[in-house]
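Extended Data, panel c. Modelled sequence:
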Amino acid sequence: MKNIFAKILYGFLFAAVLPVLLVVWAARTDWVISLPVPEISYPGYILVFCGILLILAGILNLLFFGKGLPMNAFPPDQYVKKGIYSVMKHPVYTGAVLLCFGTSVVLQSSSGLWLISPCFTLMVIAYVAGLWAQIIEGSSKLLRPYGYCGGLIGGATGCLITALFFDRYIKLCSPFFHRPIINHRVETCN
């Protein structure tokens, strides 16, 4: 019973409270930002539509293939690499970012487009990167049930967006340091 209440509270926090806080933040800071917003709103509607599609596809894939919901605190029973997750690692977060930018354009919110959406994007990246680092540090315990035996992740976060949102073997080199920024390899347990 306690676990169900925690899941409901966690879901409510991210699905209801966070969006309301972002809207209030945009409304309270709109007078500060005077940068232009595209007057044509259809690109915003396209972003909103794509964002909602990604969120729904991610949730449904986790529900059917992973036997769970998209909650980091309560992860699904199985690691999902099918459906939308075969194309990108975090469709729910990517969809939320698109939804945030799209809503800002549709509502003609200068603050939403130029302040809140970029900050939200950075918060999502930091949140996912923190969870990813935590999982990799404890990979022997946490990921073994999903077939993960180890891998290599290191370096700075210069190309972190690519690493977090696209599911490929990643070996990116920094033009400044001429060394791999991120080197991620996933092996299957035998």
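The two ends are 37 Å apart (CA to CA). This feature is highlighted in the accompanying rendering.
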